[in-house]
Amino acid sequence: MGGASSERAVSLRSGKAVAGGLKEAGYEVEEIDVKGVDFQIPTGIEAVFVALHGEFGEDGRVQEILEKRGLPYTGSGPAASRQSFDKVLSKKSFIANGIPTPAYEVLRKGEKRSLDLPVVIKPACQGSSIGVHKVNQESEWERALIDSFSYGPELIIEAYISGRELTVGVVDKDVLPVVEIVAPDDWYGFDAKYTKGASQYLVPAPIEEGLVKACREITLKTFKVLGCRGMGRVDFRLASDGRLYVLELNNIPGFTETSLLPKAAAQAGIGFSSLCDRIMNTACLDDK
User: Fold this and answer.
1) Which one of 41, 90, 126, 217 is at 20 to 30 Å from 100 when CA atoms are compared?
2) pLDDT tens digits, residue range 244-265?
């Protein structure tokens, strides 16, 4: 847990929660606060629960290190992690495999936007809504652009889909109940995500059975296309015409008190310590 990325604080909260859950489930737990690439894992550790959000945790690099050390770990392998974390790679995979996703373009410094407003700006390789902005008017564009570019040289500019926010978790090949997120001002940004009580979470989402089925099918297809395993969460927008659009796949979703995967698991009858235990039991190496 921890890491040196902009998501360090969130990761520490997730890691503390997971450690508590695993202890409650009967595990002997060693909490490792990763502060750089040269982290140490004590001898005698049998497997690793990766609760590192953001760069180094979700981009495949820590997984490569664990592979080399022969230590089984939770979540996706290096290649799938990289493809999930890099929004440019994800978008290309979605389109190549017929997964519905909002129209987008990749922007580098000095390049002009061609999509009409409103749009969403996202750093290509960040999570937790860090550096993400919804731009409704041209007067908001430059300020949002400067902030997003502070998190990386490449941005995704995505057509904003007006509608509802849904998310679907997967644990050990099982799809969890669909969650609807009702955020203030219809924008599920960083503050709405991590401020307790700022957003409402409807579990299960009050949508018709046909849409639930479609969410489940698209979630599993997205997992398969990106090569993921163990756990993850697919974020959707549901447009007013009933169309579903995949925004991204989170290969190491949050485990804080406001996080969505634990909420969905609880609705499915899986308590927090049982959830941690179940994910821990999926730990493996990439070729297993």
Assistant:
1) 126
2) 999 999 999 999 877 899 999 9
259 in catalytic set: no
Is 142 exposed, middle or buried (CB count within 10 Å of its CB: 0-12, 13-18, 19+)? exposed
Distances (CA, A) of 106 to 51, 53, 159: 29, 23, 12
Span 83-100+162-279: which CATH code? 3.30.470.20
- pLDDT tens-digit readout, 147-164: 999 988 999 999 999 999
Give residue for tokens 């297993």.
288
Q: Exactly one of 59, 235, 245, 251 is catalytic; which is it?
A: 235
Give the domain 104-159 fold: Dna Ligase; domain 1 (3.30.1490)
Evaluate the omega torsion of the peptide bond into residue 204 and state whether it is cis, within 30 degrees of 0.
yes
N residues, the chain: 288
Q: Does 250 participate in catalysis according to the annotation?
A: yes
* Catalytic residue flag (residue 46): no
- Our answer to whether residue 201 is catalytic in this structure is no
The tokens describing 139, both together, are 């007067």
30 is catalytic: no
Give me the residue spans of the domains in the chain. Answer: 83-100+162-279, 104-159
Which tokens hold the place of 227? 């090569």
Core vs surface per residue 251-286: b (16+ CB within 10 A) or e: bbbbbbebbbbbbbbbeeebebbebbbbbbebbeeb
